[in-house]
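Good morning N.,

You mentioned wanting to compare the apo and holo forms, so I went ahead and generated the holo version with uridine-diphosphate-N-acetylglucosamine. This is what I fed in:
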Amino acid sequence: MDKLIIEGGKPLKGEVKISGSKNATLPVLAATLLTDETCILRNVPKLTDTNTMIKLLKSLGKEIDWDKDKLIIMSNGKVNHIADYKMVATMRGSICVLGPLLTKLGEAKVSLPGGCVIGVRPVDLHIKGVEALGAKVDVDAGYIIAKAKRLKGSRVYLGGASGPSVLGTANIMMAATLADGETIIECAACEPEVEELANFLNEMGARIRGQGSPRIVIQGVKKLHGADYKMAPDRIEAGTFVLLSAMSKSTFMIRDIDYQQLMALDDILIKVGVQVEADKSGVRVKPPKILKPMSITTYPYPGFPTDLQAQYTALMAMANGVSVIRDTVFPDRFMHIAELNRMGARIRREGGSAIIEGVKSLCGAPVVASDLRASAALVMAGLVARGKTEIRRVYHLDRGYENIDKKLIALGASIKREKE
Ligand code: UD1
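and this is what came out, ligand included:
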């Protein structure tokens, strides 16, 4: 396992390029199971999570190779319907092979992913969705076993206690592409990653409309074909760099960013005094002398993303006053609080909220990364803290941030990666 050693306080300048979207790539990779033809994906981020999905697809029978920066996904026609526990347990995103396997092969046996440090993470909406399309589903020995000769289009409401589900919508949308007749998903997730998956599926010959809205309509087709597709930039990586720029009081150019997707963040940044200049060439952040505190609540898109909650908490840890952060999507996603407090932050948790009293400065400390976005928050804190921060278990970071240390070093940060 690797650890990162950061010497804080170095000014950041120059430019950084945002990689392809992890959360769009995972379901798009799963969607290649819907065809026996070759698919080519461009701008796929080289991350542990994308590698895990590639391994899972290989275990299901796909042949996958990199050709420079292109990922080529081929098939010899034999696809296995069992997604093993060992693969699924390492990454929850693996659940999105359920819909494609079921609709293409007529059966799927996919391990239940289990919980993780950010919460319980149920899959009831995924199961409800495939059942609505006519599948018979059993949960046995830790596996979801779903069967249907051919799925039948239907109207399905996919809202849960915490709103829509991103991967639940992705799963049912993929399942419906090859179903008989029309499927309407109500209370669909509106995340850009769902929209991107629908665009990819349409490139493969699917007939989907309404993506990006809470009502997605899918006309089933008999067969899908191969496609050549370029993944859009990662909005969460982009948002992380925007927040880092504000927190480190440094201005640098952020390229390959779709700032439109970060409206909720932009709205808050204006309120805390951060100016953002966005044009076709990229985004530049003008940090204020004094950062104002501002409370936020996370919501499904287009609300403030839960995947930027930890990084925003790090920013507010240095604001001039008190702010309250509430996470409605994952109310237990607060593992970063204790570690940020080890660095001098003053944050306490009350139920599903974090109450932050801003401090003037943070100091370096040994800390442990608990999950992907919490790790990003610790890196941000380490980069602005006085002295040395040692972050253990950075494999979490490598799940979702491509070449993060190299990108930060290029901006002027002092970071070393060492074996633990
Ligand atoms: C995706 C993202 C993750 C992000 C999350 C919310 C990927 C690979 N991961 O995860 O980074 O944090 O969206 O934006 O794209 N829920 C249920 N029943 C279900 C499914 C979910 O109650 O069957 C609940 C969850 O516990 C949570 C909420 O719905 O409270 C949203 O979760 P969901 O959108 O499903 O998250 P993922 O798609 O797993």
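The first strand starts at residue 2 and ends at 7.

Happy to go through it together on a call whenever suits you.

Best,
F.
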